[in-house]
Amino acid sequence: MERNVFGSSLEGLKLLKSEQGELQTKPFLDVCRQLLPILDKFGAAMTVVKSDIGGNISRIESKYSSNPSRFNYLFSMVLAEVETNTAKSSSSCTSGLLWLTRAMDFLVQLFVNLGKHQDWSMQQACTDSYSKTLKKWHGWLASSSFTVAIKLVPDRKKLMEVIGGEANIQEDMGKFCTSFSPTLAEIHKFLVTSFLALFSNDSV
H-helix or E-strand containing 77? Predict the structure, then answer.
């Protein structure tokens, strides 16, 4: 039987940390990338989100590929940009990691809502997730655009059937959210403690 994306992602999460407990670049990007097919099922509603996630994955992956041994650990490229005073650039990997993590926050909250609130429509689940995560970082234009896009989300039942693959998708989805959330929190904490608190007031 075909395995759902959450079951596959759970396997990927096991590879996130090195034996020394450090977050590894490629496994993290692989887990993020595995969620992109789910966004395809949302159609036009998640086009911008998928584009942003894909773009930030590519940016970080390009930096990693330039020197895999040096940037094997995710935080190493942030520290390198802090040292060269390039971390504040909107095109930096640090900025890319920040927005990628924020997008993952949104998706995890969405999955939590889908599992916890069985009576919610997809639009309700998306709106609540957005309000709790990305909305506070978005300016008026981005927020308005997202609000319009959410109205295009597909029917909840149909979406769950499409991304399912097997009966225990709810269980795998819950396990994924529980397992991935601490990693996202760790990244946010690192960015703040690495003299990057100034990003906390950034908006688009």
Answer: helix 74-83
Residues near 179 by beta carbon (within 8 Å), at least 6 away in sequence: 10, 13
Digit-coded pLDDT (tens) for 55-105: 999 999 999 999 999 999 999 999 999 888 888 888 999 999 999 999 999
Distance between CA atoms of residues 67 and 128, nearest Å: 40
pTM of the predicted model as reported, rounded to 2 decimal places: 0.90
Distances (CA, A) of 164 to 6, 47, 157: 9, 21, 10
204 to 55, 58, 200: CA distances (angstroms): 16, 20, 12
Reference 203, options 99, 119, 61; nearest CA is: 99
Which residues fall within 8 angstroms of residue 47, CB to CB, at 6 or more apart?
Answer: 149
Residue 50 identity: K
Residue whose pair of structure tokens reads 């397992």 in the numeric block: 179
